[in-house]
Amino acid sequence: MRILGIETSCDETGIAIIDDDLGLLSHQLYSQVKLHADYGGVVPELASRDHIRKIVPLIKRAMQEADCQAGDLDGVAFTQGPGLVGALLVGASVGRSLAYAWDVPAVGVHHMEGHLLAPMLDEPKPEYPFVALLVSGGHTMMVRVDGIGQYDVLGESVDDAAGEAFDKTAKIMGLDYPGGPMLAKLAEKGEPGHYKFPRPMTDRPGLDFSFSGLKTFAANTIRSAATDDQTRANIAFAFQDAVIDTLAIKCKRALKQTGLNRLVIAGGVSANTELRSRLEKMMQGIRGKVFYPKLEFCTDNGAMIAYAGLQRLKAGQVEGLSSKAKPRWPLDSLPPC
Ligand code: KG4
Ligand code: ZN
After folding, report:
1. Residue of 12, 79, 136, 157 best suited for mutating to test ligand 1, as the one with most atoms within 8 Å of CB
2. Please, are residues 189 and 231 in contact by the beta-carbon 8 Å criterion?
3. Which strands make up the sheet holding 262-266, listed edge to edge?
4. CA of 96 to the centre of ligand 2 (A)
5. From CA 152, how far away is CA 288, in angstroms rounded?
6. Selection from 119, 150, 142, 145 nearest residue 290 by Cα
7. Strand 150-156 vs strand 140-147: parallel, antiparallel, or unpaired?
8. DSSP tag of 311
9. What residue's CA is closest to ligand 1, atom 1?
10. 155, 141 in Cβ contact below 8 A?
């Protein structure tokens, strides 16, 4: 089975073609970062319009690269939610229409399921069951995963997502959008021991997260600190250290609670090298194993949607002609595969 995958939930147009036997045949990505940089964040209307401009040329390019004609495709998968409704509608309309024109089935994919399954694009694949820490710009979730669509959400953020906290703190520090990776880069030059940020919600039981207080703490620290480069780097270091520590404490707690020793981290923030190495060390300490996607598949991309869609189409799950975008869509409402 060979399918086309389409991702347009936010500010990246991602297209991929995946084959059941041959793996990923093509993967194209267009990032709208420059378009939104002047505004310091994603402007939904501009995002939708840019997806419209880029989606068809990218699909053509992916089909060329995969040496694929319309008749070679057995299905189309598109991100159905959660995300920006206008942006989702572009991918859903184009994906559903192409499937209709090519007379093949279509399937709507949950964006966070795409992230969660992204490590499966590589070897070795994590075996079920495992605990997944999903850390993106829109969501922070701890999930027990027993199979595709068998998700038990153990905890999530009660306010800002981890990526959102990175982006907002970066903005307060005057770093360019998208701030997460910029802040991480600045933190590399930081020295430990200068600032101590709180580890929110780690002093009480449970697996929920809260990151908005860290952003306020960062704002207050910056206001009362000197403005030289080293001080800024030290603040970035202390902020990142607090986020990573908090995530690591919660991962350890989730593994203990579930009795599992396999951990998956996915979503944009899983591209953070310090987070990867810290969790790697932690998992070695408890004789477990951590899995994460290749760097290019941590942030939004079409390959993860193609992969998740392929699994669901193989299980016979298809989307009717009147499919809708689902800007809000709980992960644990998905059917098992
Ligand atoms: O998964 P993603 O591409 O989009 C959503 O589904 O939200 O995640 C984007 C988020 C942004 O908040 C971005 O700042 C963050 O991931 N991010 C990072 C890093 N790379 C991306 N945060 C910290 N360190 C990084 N290296
Ligand atoms: Zn995402």
Report:
1. 136
2. no
3. 150-156, 140-147, 130-135, 262-266, 289-291
4. 21
5. 20
6. 119
7. antiparallel
8. H
9. 268
10. yes
Phi, psi of 142 (to 5 degrees): -110, 125
Residuewise pLDDT in 10s, the chain (337 residues): 999 999 999 999 999 999 999 999 999 999 999 999 999 999 999 999 999 999 999 999 999 999 999 999 999 999 999 999 999 999 999 999 999 999 999 999 999 999 999 999 999 999 999 999 999 999 999 999 999 999 999 999 999 999 999 999 999 999 998 899 999 999 999 999 999 999 999 999 999 999 999 999 999 999 999 999 999 999 999 999 999 999 999 999 999 999 999 999 999 999 999 999 999 999 999 999 999 999 999 999 999 999 999 999 999 999 998 888 999 999 999 999 9
Helix (H) or strand (E) holding 269: none
Distance CA 190, CA 93 (A): 46
- For ligand 1, residues with CB inside 6 Å are 10, 136-138, 163-164, 166-167, 178-181, 184, 267-269, 271-272, 299-300
Cβ atoms within 10 Å of 320's Cβ, excluding its own: 9
| Host H or E run for residue 264 | strand 262-266
Ligand nearest to the Cα of 267, by number? 1
Integer Cα distance of 44 and 167 in angstroms: 17
Lookup result for tokens 């403005």: 227
CB 313 within 8 A of CB 3: yes
User: Token digits for 304?
Assistant: 């993860």
Are 142 and 251 within 8 A, CB to CB? Answer: yes
Model pTM score: 0.97
CB atoms within 10 A of CB 225: 14
